[in-house]
Specification:
The chain has 166 residues and is α+β, with helices and mostly antiparallel strands. The protein is built from 6 helices and 4 strands, in the order H-H-E-E-H-H-H-E-E-H. It has a 4-stranded antiparallel beta sheet.
């Protein structure tokens, strides 16, 4: 199955624009987000990661509660630390961790230089995407860690596109 919007594994990475990243967030909105939705989405991410033998950890949080977590072969405890740091960026900014970093880069600076936030607590690196619910806003985050940051971001976006189209 070929998805034209998904970059194949070893193709050169084309960095998405801030506008493209913002469009993803406007498009990938849930009508609701239940415990069952978290399980189904997390399970889809695990299935996709297994197919690719991706060494990732996967996490879904809603309103401060961890609803899903999985660690696949090759992932390490460090991935859980990255998940927490990326998720905090989504919770604080209401936008994907990759988009937050991209907005700082677009201003000619970096998140680390200009956010005034502790880099041991917050990481504006790709891989955490907001769980945005119609008429409620951002209520949580879906996060992947273990691949290069743009691939982490694209992996979550691909899973959300598939999940929300079903």
């Amino acid at each position: 199955m070929h998805h034209p919007q998904i970059t194949p594994k070893f193709a050169p990475e084309i960095t998405p624009s801030v506008e493209e990243l913002e469009a993803q967030e406007r498009r990938l909105v849930f009508r609701q987000f239940t415990y069952d939705d978290a399980w189904a989405l997390g399970s889809l991410l695990v299935e996709l990661a297994r197919e690719r033998q991706a060494p990732v950890a996967i996490d879904i949080h809603r309103a401060g509660q961890q609803l899903f977590h999985a660690a696949l072969p090759g992932s390490t405890p460090d991935n859980d630390a990255w998940i927490a740091r990326k998720r905090r960026v989504v919770e604080r900014y209401g936008a994907s961790s990759y988009l937050v970093g991209a907005r700082f880069r677009a201003k000619g600076t970096t998140f680390e230089e200009s956010s005034r936030l502790d880099p041991d607590t917050y990481a504006a690196h790709g891989g955490s995407f907001p769980v945005n619910v119609e008429n409620a806003g951002v209520i949580g985050a879906v996060t992947v860690s273990g691949l290069p940051q743009l691939q982490d971001h694209r992996f979550v976006v691909e899973a959300l596109e598939q999940f929300l189209s079903e």
